[in-house]
Every structure is written in C-alpha cells, then in structure tokens.
Specification:
By secondary structure, the chain is mainly α. The protein has one domain. Helices cover 69% and strands 3% of the residues. Strands 1-2-3 form a three-stranded antiparallel β-sheet. The radius of gyration is 21 Å and the shape is globular.
C-alpha cells in the first residue's frame, strides 16, 4: 500500500501529547544512539594500530569521529524538537545549495585518488554528495506532495523528476561517484512508488536508469575492473578481490562470539578502509556473529519503524519524507553489508551511524532527527 492510499483510507492521525511518545519513536531513538556509540568503539578499534605508523597518533581518527558524533547527537536532538513541516519551506534553498556545492566540488574540490569529492572551506571539509541525499529526499517529498493529484501526468511529475534526477545524479557521477548516484536514483524511485506513481512510469524510469548505469560501468576501466573482480574474486585475490577476501577472512575469524575489541586483524591494515567502507567486517570480527546480528537488528528497527511511520504520518509530506529516509537507510545498509559479504560489488558506501566520516554521519543524524520528529507526531 502506498502512503497516499493509506491517507485516503483514513490511516492518518496525530498523537496526543498526554499519551507520551509512541514506542516506535523510543525504539528508533535508542537504536540510533546505540549505533552511534558502537560506531565510536568500532572506529577506535579499527584505526588505532594502523595510525601509529601513519600519523604518529593512534587516536587521531577516534578524536575526530567522537567530535562528529557529538555534533550529530546535538543536531539530532535539535531536529527532534523542530516540526518537520518547516523543512518544506527551505526545500528550494537546500536543493539549490546542494546543486551549487556539487558544481563547485568539480572545479575547486579537494582531489584524492583521482576523484574530487570534498569541499574545503577552511574550518571544515564536507562531501556535497551526502548533503545532496538529504536535499533530494526533502525536495522530492515536497514536490510529490504538491502534485499528488497529477501522478499519472508525465509532463507534471515523471518528466520533471527524470530531469531533476539526471542533473543531480549526473553531477555526482562526474566526481566520479557512481555508487552514490545509483543510491540516490533508487531512493527517488522508492519515493515515487510510495507516492503511487503508475507502474508504467516507474518501469520506464527504472529501465532507463539501469541501462545508463550499465553503460557508465562498462565505459570506465576502474568500474569495469571492480565488477569483474566481484564476479571472479577468487581469481583476483591480489587485485580487485583483495578487499572482499580480507573482509570475509575477518568475519570468519570472528566466529560466533568474536575475537574481542582490538583483537582482530582488520585494524592492522589487512582490510583497506576498515573504519569506513568495511566497518561491518570489523564488527563481525571483533564482536562476532552475536554483535553483527545486534547491529543489524538495531538498523532494522530504525528502518522498519521508519516505514511504519510513513504509513501513519500526520500528512502526505511527512509520509513521503519518512519513506524517503527509510529507503535511504535501507539501501545503504544493503549495499555496505552486501559488499562486505561479497554479495554485491564494492562501492565505498558507509554504514549509517557506525562508519567513520564527518559529513555522512552528521547528515544521517539530521535525517534520523527528521524521522524521529515525524514519529513523535504520528498516532
């Protein structure tokens, strides 16, 4: 059932203040905070030994990550108490800022590994693509709410959304960051489905996106190599399959109960980017199957409660906003965990609330604050 149909059937109401916050709100808030705490511990365990030889300071990444978590928690709590409807008014400004940042990063962004993904403003560095995800969800929720009675009109909904996605995702691909662009496109498709866009329109958008993604993958030697490494990881254990093989070894070392904090091999550099792109491998090795399952349950609690919130939000804008954020978290968890388990190609996607990374963590906290505010006001 789409969120719009649930509203038409009367499945909407606002919470009574005397009843206290709904249980799903409490469950989501507790899950987010526990995941952030887990992330602090995992980043410390994943980066400590390697940084001694790299930076001369074993706690440099831990200190930065703890700062990001602190900022994220304060931002989350601030947004929990601020009505999510106010974001409808700033959606154009947020979207315009995201577009401007995506353009600027192509010309004056910090270059690393052949990519330009960071903007350095002196006091802080941020990734425009992460802010673009939040801008996408907020602006698309506002747009679909305004045009909810014209969903069957190609000229009023489907074509404008397709053009908007082509511009936004195209700028991200130019960085290059195809994995993030694919996630953003998938979030948009999920929101369109939740809004009730006709299936034939969804199928056309999905087919176009898949064909374009396939072309961009095959046209780039780097992306093509990653895909080939995924399908033949055992034959490329010293090349493209190295990260995937080492992540599986880490998970195998962890077994059922784990090796204990800072007792695994991932943090010694055997798993590249263990504190960001492969943090779930560190969780699996040091906390074992039990710890990994606990992390997945906490993430699943946020996602499932988010989708339930989308069904019973006070208005259509809140429903679409909650659906978009839930799709966002769901896709990032699937892509990250799938890459670690060698079920999907590696795309360098962080695990929400756990992976090291200032912009991603703070933006995820902001999105969680919006989701929690909608849940507070839902019956």
């Amino acid at each position: 059932m789409t969120v719009l149909s649930s509203h038409r059937e009367g499945g909407v109401g606002s919470s009574n203040a005397s009843e206290g916050p709904p249980m799903r709100y409490v469950a989501m808030l507790a899950s987010v905070l526990l995941l952030m705490l887990t992330g602090v511990v995992m980043v410390l365990s994943a980066s400590n030994p390697a940084l001694i030889g790299q930076d001369g300071d074993a706690f440099s990444k831990f200190a930065r990550h703890a700062t990001y978590v602190t900022v994220g928690v304060f931002l989350l709590l601030f947004l929990v108490g601020r009505d999510y409807r106010s974001w409808r008014r700033i959606a154009p400004l947020l979207l315009g800022s995201a577009f401007l940042a995506l353009v600027l990063v192509l010309f004056v962004g910090r270059s690393s590994g052949g990519s330009r993904r960071w903007l350095d403003l002196g006091l802080f560095i941020f990734q425009p693509s992460e802010i673009a995800k939040l801008a996408l969800v907020v602006s698309l929720a506002s747009f679909l709410d305004q045009r909810r009675y014209f969903l069957d009109r190609v000229d009023r909904v489907t074509a404008p959304v397709a053009l908007f996605l082509a511009l936004l995702c195209g700028l991200v691909v130019l960085q290059p960051k195809l994995g993030t662009a694919a996630i953003m496109g998938s979030i948009a498709l999920g929101m369109l489905w939740a809004a009730g866009l006709p299936f034939r329109h969804l199928a056309a958008l999905l087919t176009s996106g898949l064909l374009l993604g396939l072309f961009l993958t095959l046209a780039s030697p780097y992306r093509r190599g990653r895909v080939l490494g995924f399908f033949s990881a055992s034959q490329n254990s010293e090349g493209w399959g190295w990260q995937a093989d080492q992540s599986l070894i880490s998970l195998a070392n962890g077994g059922f109960r784990g090796t204990g904090l800072s007792a695994g091999h991932a943090q010694w550099g055997w798993v590249p980017e263990a504190h960001t792109d492969f943090v779930f491998a560190v969780v699996g090795e040091q906390l074992g199957f039990i710890g990994s399952l606990a992390v997945v349950i906490l993430l699943g609690t946020i996602i499932l409660a988010g989708f339930r919130t989308a069904q019973i939000a006070p208005d259509v804008f809140g429903s679409l906003l909650a659906a978009g954020i839930s799709f966002w978290f769901f896709l990032q968890v699937v892509v990250h965990v799938g890459g670690v388990l060698r079920l999907l190609p590696i795309t360098g996607v962080t695990l929400p609330f756990i992976s090291y990374g200032g912009t991603a963590l703070i933006v995820n906290a902001a999105a969680a604050g919006l989701l929690l505010n909608i849940a507070r006001q839902s019956r």
